[in-house]
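Issue 218. Parser rejects a valid record. Input:
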Amino acid sequence: MENKAKTMASLLAIVVVIGLSVQGTMAHPCGNTFFSALVQLLPCRASVAPFSPIPPNEACCNAVRVLGQPCLCVLVNGPPISGVDRSLAMQLPEKCSVNFEPCI
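Output the parser choked on:
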């Protein structure tokens, strides 16, 4: 009987952990993951290439607006991205006329 109680407690703990992780993912559109934020902000790649004079296009600005500051901060604070100038990425909200708090 004791083994059955331990098994049930373990299953309950797993269900709670899965539930919390799903809830956390749903709370932020970028899922708090570096890769999903990167993929969702692909329309901005021309505007964040090193030394790029290209302003963000409408698709980029729409992605920035929809995804919001958390996703941009995931990218800015994450590992280096080949072909992306972080300072240009941090300027996207201003260039798209979106008011976000600065990433910390």
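Fixed in the parser; the record now loads. The chain is about 65% helix and 0% strand.
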